[in-house]
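sorry for the late reply, my laptop died twice this morning and i had to redo everyting from scratch. anyway the thing you sent over, i finally got around to it. pasting the sequence first so we're on the same page, its 221 residues, then the predicted structure underneath. double check i copied it right bc i was rushing
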Amino acid sequence: MGYLNNTVVTVDAILTTKGRQLLAQNDGAFRITQFALADDEIDYTLYNPTHPSGSAYYGEALINMPLLEAFPNETQVMKYKLTTLPRGTAKLPVLSIKNTNISLPQGASQIISPQTLNYTGGNLVEQSGYTFTISDVRLTSTFEGVGINTPNAQALNTAIQTTGTVVSKTVIGTSLNIRGTTVNAIFPALAAAGTILQATLNIVGRDSGATSTIPFTLTKV
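ok and here's the structure:
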């Protein structure tokens, strides 16, 4: 969804198949209850506090940048979401993760427990938890978020794991349980010991919007 020039179009949105179905029912079933904003198209290095015309023009280049219209490729849109931070937040929240990379031999497990620094929302662990997304869930036999028991979190955490082509998976929790799969079970052609498979793990604070991406490595022993 994108906000455009309000003299032409106020909001440009692409609905999912389910969204179009609910809208077509015309019975009030189609209701937008949540949305997110992002500034993917903005290059903040163009902000110019030395503009010769004065402070009213510092952001002129930003204001005149073209805005992205809605498109459905979720891997290429809304990478930089905006968030409303608590009053008094003086620094940008950042995630603190004990392991800046995850390297597991097959069958080994690890618990990932992020904390959020520079965030005045209360505890270091965010109340709504974190979203964990791995780029190739086939490399894991366990990929489970724990600590958040909302219906949305439970639905994601219990979804069936796909074992075919490369597929990402997202779970929600205050921490993540992850176990490396047995390589031969998914990749029978990779018989040599020492074979290394790689993916990435993206972690996002659900209250602060702070995000971090770390590498995940699985080694056949």
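The mean pLDDT is 80.
thats about all i looked at so far, will dig more tmrw
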